[in-house]
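Deviation from plan, reported transparently: FE3-S4 cluster complex.
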Amino acid sequence: AIDPNFEESREVVEEHEGHRVWGPVEEPETLGIHGTHVAVDFDICLEDGACLEDCPVDVFEWVETPGHPESERKADPANESQCIDCMLCVDVCPVDAIDVDPG
Ligand code: SF4
Ligand code: F3S
Ligand code: ZN
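Because the crystal trials were delayed, the predicted structure below was used instead.
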């Protein structure tokens, strides 16, 4: 499962589509965590898709990640600022790849 304390245990290594990426990143095998308020551990995500289907405000968009051992598509929190903290995505992800911090 995603480490809920990733903001302490990791460092921001880049930006992607307006959100932070928490390292380490070593493409294509290691991709890190995308987003902060809505955080997706790309190294755990296996392309289930429930988060994209269920999010009521369409926070997630697919991003291609060829060569990653878990899956070659990830749910990117492209619109994390739209999140209404319903927690549906956290509940439906079968591998607990998502952390939402209502702060
Ligand atoms: Fe979407 Fe709700 Fe998840 Fe926020 S908590 S990203 S609104 S499903
Ligand atoms: Fe990935 Fe979980 Fe969504 S596996 S596609 S983050 S439901
Ligand atoms: Zn991203």
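DSSP finds three helices and seven strands in the chain. We consider this an acceptable substitute for the interim report.
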